[in-house]
Amino acid sequence: MTALGGVWSAARRLAVGSALVLPLVGCAGGVDTVPGSSSAGTAAEEELTGQVTVFAAASLSDVFGTFETRFEELHPRVDVLVSFAGSSSLAEQIRQGAPADVFASADLATMASVEDDGAVSGSTAFTSNSLELVVPVGNPAGVTGLADLARSDLAIALCAEEVPCGAATVTLLDAVDVEAAPDTLEQDVTSVLTKVRLGEADAGLVYRTDVLAAGDAVEGIAVDGADDVVNVYPIAVLADAPNPDAADAFVDFVLSDEARGILDGAGFGAP
Amino acid sequence: MSATSGERRGAGDLDVHVSLRRGSFALDAAFLALAGRTLAIAGPNGAGKTTVLECIAGVTVADTVGVRVGERVLDDVGTHVPPEARRVGMVFQEYLLFPHLTVLDNVAFGPRSTGAGRLEARERAAEWLHRFGLSGLSDRRPHRLSGGQRQRVALARALVTEPDVLLLDEPLAALDVEVRDDVRLELADHLADFGGATIVVTHDAADIRTLADDLVILERGAVTHDGPVAAVFDGPTTAYARRLVGRAGA
Amino acid sequence: MPRSAGRRSDRSTPRLSPLVWIAAGVALALLVLPLAALAVRAPWAQLPELLGRSEVVSALTLSLGTALLSTLIALALGVPLALVLARSAAWPVVPRRVLRALVTVPLVLPPVVGGVALLLLLGRRGLLGGPLEDAWGVTIPFTTTAVVIAQVFVAMPFLVLAVEGAIRASDRRFEQVAATLGASRATVFRRVTLPLVAPGVSAGAVLCFTRALGEFGATVTFAGSFPGVTQTLPIATYLELQRDPQAAIALSLVLMVVSVVVLVALRDRWVPGTTA
């Protein structure tokens, strides 16, 4: 719990610091969906070397950790460094000239803002995430579906509308026509998850991957209509990438079938 | 050396016996301070003079303390009257006037704390300030007083509670040398009006000559001289005492 | 005027070395420049409209109310704790250090962790919160009470340490003087100890209030965030950052201005005469 809180607050502080000067751009653009290249091994023949710095959204921590290991096995002379933080913090760091090679964002809008600044030209959607009901172990309140979010006798935790997961929540609840009665509107998914994990909230809406990553600490309940409201993750090589060849190879790997398998295992959906 | 003896004790006389050990410092002193007279306690720094006063005032507790005023026991085996109930007034070094109170309220503090109403306390305070020629300063804060004025206020503050015993810890040490003589003479007048036993701690021979009737010299926690000032000054027996009375090397 | 006093104050304020001035200037710049940047970038024109928004008004009201209540609670509980802490100088080393560490820990703890700790104690499944709900049906998280508890938890140590410092710095002989003048312990505390440490108490209360007003991490973790109930201004500001950074800047400016105004007002009221 302590470690979780520490990391979490550090990430949040970063987000606050940078977001102060960050003009968020609301439109998404320049994303084309490209099917994964079939072989992840082709790049090895070019004898890639050096270091690849990858900036990845915090929700990708688990899978990108695995990607790093696998990629380094395929390219022994390449050292992959992955920096995880909130997408908007990473975008701001990129804008401020951080020497990154690859950027993987948790939403299209953030990637679009980086593209608008010319730090990226063209990104590729590589995966997506959808919402799922999450309840404490044993489901003490007997939650069965989204309709239960309207029960005022339950403690309900949702993401605040201002943050991406909250926007997705609103869209989903609108789509299924449920008037939720939340007790708290949290600033990120992790906070919702924590409240449910500790049993403070009887139910919450978080991403499917978060439910899977939480393991036995919570229970997930798949909901109808969730697949229609997805969050798309784009990835791009930065225009000023210090090591563009290796960066290209890493992006290719992320788009490969092998990576697709890892993403599937973590609960991520198709792009 | 001690002049203490039960038979001689009068109604307002202060009978003191203090004994304590703090690390390597040991104090064991006994003496009698007579009502209507002023006893000076002199001695080198670290001799235990202030500790003796604090024991008499009850703010420090020694290993064994015997303090009596007449027949009233303030300290004995199994007895410790707390400072607020001892009727022992004390003027501390640097006077320690309450910085957050005016001169008037400093002096009214005692009466107010012992049950007098606000008006009555202020009246009694004003009376003492008048007696000490401080009426014009009633509304001042202590930091706007001269050293001599502070000393008089501190004295008035102690005397307004009508204590049985008055203790003064180096009452002139905080003053500039130029004003000391005047303040000392004035202090002697005020002490002369006080009916109880007075103890003045000092290491200034001028203080002793002007203020005191009797003298106890305390060295390394023990009484080395005890008697009327003139008698002690006539026959100093230790190096410190000889230096004090101005007969060093004589 | 007394010459001795004049000389003493001359002696205690020697000329400062240029290095001190430079360092002080850098320190001030470090504190002020970010806020100045905030003020420069703030959308001033947007401010009246923002201040009129009902959610901003409710967040501001909630923040001021809870911070004030937290400060009062911290005063009532923290001053006695500071007294004990100041007196602990006479204790054996181990309990003295343990007590001091316990008081200081919330200062170094990331507030979010503090919030989790509060949940583990007072949450619905917490050590105390569980029995509380079973016995009386009382739940603390997601209530304004939780906001106040979180603020007290995070802000009270500031008050305790400030007051304790003042008590230590104050001359205990003043209390002895008061006792020899016939004052009981209670009178000594009320008429001497407390007034003498009043500047420290007021400084501590001011620190505590500002810290409570700006509290975010422990509050959002323990109390959650719901408009009008638990969503204080810092939380509203943070959420607004995700959507409309300009508005968020304006909100943080409001928070700043309000704290400054409140602090100035409190200072003058709480420290009568002691500034002389």
UniProtKB/TrEMBL annotation, chain A:
GO terms for biological process: molybdate ion transport. GO terms for molecular function: metal ion binding; molybdate ion binding. It comes from the Bacteria. Molybdate binds at residues 59, 87, 189, 207. Gene3D superfamilies: Periplasmic binding protein-like II (3.40.190.10). Keywords: Metal-binding, Molybdenum, Signal. Belongs to the bacterial solute-binding protein ModA family. This is Molybdate ABC transporter substrate-binding protein. It comes from Labedella phragmitis. The lineage of its organism: Bacteria, Bacillati, Actinomycetota, Actinomycetes, Micrococcales.
